[in-house]
Amino acid sequence: MSFLSFGLGSKRKQANKTKSSSSTTSLQSKPLFLCYPYVTHMLVKGNFKTIIELPKYVDANEWLAFNTFEFFNLINLFYGSITDFCSSQTCPTMSAGPGVEYPWSDAQSKKIKLPAPQYIDYMATSIQNMLHDETIFPTKAGCEFPREFPTIIKRIFGQLFRLFAHIYHHHYDKILSLNQEPHFNSLFAHFISFAREFNLLDKKEIQPLQELVDIMIRNGVIS
What we know:
Order of helices and strands: HHHHEEHHHHHH
């Protein structure tokens, strides 16, 4: 299974491909996603506090399951829109900036280096299989979530964060050329807000995008 091919904004791609070219040269000292005004481009004003909190009378595991499913599908769409630019040649490793590489753990827990597209394909397949596994994500009345469900959700969030980090560090110029940055930044802020609310990401995991998270916290986007 591979991520969906999704041409969000593709018709405007050529017209906007140089959107950031004039500022890139002078701002090469830091990643584009940390540069103004892009870092402030959001779909919403305020923060996501009211939509991430556990609603009354909703089971906590049900809430985790629903939101995990939604985040997986949404990041799927964004990766699908830039997947043509993520190849074994352009991204020979699954990385998130200088010095940050993510090896894949195979069935024997052996860590292996994979090109980013192959890593992401394996990751997507693994998550998709879990989402469709009734013993992990039950959909029938009377069926209970497994005892280790919160741990499983943390693992999924860790993998989804890696995809966010890869896109931000290596494909954000494509996000800009497609005018997707308000959508992508908003999704990331929502994702991190939810992860912080339910303690789904460790501080070490967030490190590749910590500066972006800090800016969003200062701007009041992440509470």
